[in-house]
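hey m, so remember when u said the tokens were messed up on ur end? i reran from scratch. heres the input so u can diff it against urs
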Amino acid sequence: MQAVTHQISNRQRKSTGFTLVEMVVVVAIVGILASAAIPFVQYGEHRLKERELRHALREIRTAIDAYYQAALDGRIPSKVDSSGYPPDLATLTDGVPDAKTPDARKIYFLRRIPRDPFAPPETSDGDMWGLRSYASPPSEPKAGDDVFDVYSLNPGTGSNGAPYRDW
């Protein structure tokens, strides 16, 4: 009777835990799955930056259009020969006096200039965006007396196949 009990306890000891071979196989499988998931994570981060770029461009362009509309409405004094667009991006955040209020309080169009998510972190807000004036053609945007549009200075191409410059 004692020998039978001794055999059962040895079997129980052997069946508990994993062997070294089983552990190596599990670690190898987890490693393969992790290496397969890394490109998907990187692609997701890239898509997030593209979404942030679209949002930043939309925000700046909406502010430029609001400035232009305020100039058309006579709320912003402008010269007869001017286009009605802001002279620079800083004007959108610094504000301009409202010509239609007696105390000439300022009208603000942006709280801050959004960052280009593809720009290097050390880039200043003023040098982050490419500026297109009203007088320059869309195919060759150049800065000028006003800011008609903005574009990304990143030379890359988006996941949709269009260069970031053309977004």
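this time it looks ok to me. The helical segments are 2-15, 20-72, 90-94. if urs says something different then somethings off w ur setup not the seq
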